[in-house]
UniProtKB/TrEMBL annotation:
<dbReference type="InterPro" id="IPR016031">
    <property type="entry name" value="Trp_RNA-bd_attenuator-like_dom"/>
</dbReference>
<dbReference type="InterPro" id="IPR036983">
    <property type="entry name" value="AIM24_sf"/>
</dbReference>
<dbReference type="InterPro" id="IPR002838">
    <property type="entry name" value="AIM24"/>
</dbReference>
<protein>
    <submittedName>
        <fullName>TIGR00266 family protein</fullName>
    </submittedName>
</protein>
<dbReference type="Pfam" id="PF01987">
    <property type="entry name" value="AIM24"/>
</dbReference>
Length: 266
């Protein structure tokens, strides 16, 4: 194996975190901001690019960092190493309510494709790269654009899905249609494209966007029930304007209650 062979446990229900057990000299890489806690004896190091074996040397590091720029991620990642003789633990937390999905890349022939902000952490040696879409329609209307992330190697990786996660195993020729924002990731054999929603009423009043993600087997697909964009939109829509408290929220009078209470802001 080129990647470090790590053990792990996932804790929690709505707000999960993953605890990685590192043997001496083993390491794990993670996105900046996902770190939660670590035992004494863990050394933290900021690395340029993803620090995988594929990015050895200065030029390799530059290429690895360039890939991360294209996916909208930070130039740097953080690596955590166990520098003592015994086992040590380091933990990484979900960015928002949802599920952490362990991905054993050896089960997927060394490659898994996911949305740009799904990756959480992985064993040292796993490559975090980019996957270009070769289809114009998927690139412009697929929600994730031309570029998605690809995780390559023979180790464990962990991705995050918002809300509840659904795993669908598609047989050859079997098709699944998914909201573009709800797609977390899929295996390399899955044929991914977008499909235009038919019907003028659906386009104008359906409220679900103009396109579906169309996935055709064979392969495995992971879907999330709560994309972060949907969560953020609901929070923004419910936030009172101007930073004040909305006195009419939840009442029968609604906005009229604000006027009766003397709050006449519009």
């Amino acid at each position: 194996m080129t990647a470090h062979e790590i053990d792990y446990r996932i804790y929690g229900e709505e707000m999960q975190y993953v605890e990685i057990e590192l043997d001496p000299q083993e390491g794990v890489i993670a996105e900046a901001g996902s770190f939660m806690m670590m035992d004494d004896g863990i050394k933290m190091e900021t690395i340029f690019g993803d620090g995988s074996e594929q990015n050895k040397g200065f030029l390799g590091s530059i290429l690895g960092a360039g890939k991360r720029i294209l996916t909208g991620e930070n130039l740097f990642m953080t690596a955590f190493y166990n520098v003592l003789s015994g086992k040590r633990n380091v933990s990484f937390a979900s960015p928002y309510p949802g599920k952490i999905i362990p991905i054993d890349l050896t089960e997927f022939r060394g490659k898994f494709i996911c949305q740009k902000d799904a990756f959480l952490c992985a064993a040292k040696g796993v490559s975090v790269g980019i996957e270009f879409s070769k289809k114009i329609g998927r690139g412009f209307f697929g929600g994730e654009g031309f570029i998605m992330q690809k995780l390559e190697g023979d180790g464990m990786a962990f991705v995050h899905a918002g809300g509840t996660m659904a795993k669908k195993v598609l047989q050859a020729g079997e098709t699944l249609r998914v909201d573009t924002g709800c797609l977390v990731g899929f295996t390399q054999d899955v044929d991914y494209d977008i499909e235009f929603i038919g019907g003028i009423k659906n386009k104008l009043f359906g409220g679900e966007g103009l396109f579906y993600a169309k996935l055709q087997g064979p392969g495995t697909v992971y879907i999330q029930s709560l994309p972060f964009s949907r969560l953020a939109a609901r929070v923004w829509a419910s936030a009172p304007q101007g930073g004040g408290k909305d006195k009419g929220e939840g009442s029968i009078l609604g906005g009229l209650g604000n006027i009766l209470d003397g709050d006449n802001r519009f």
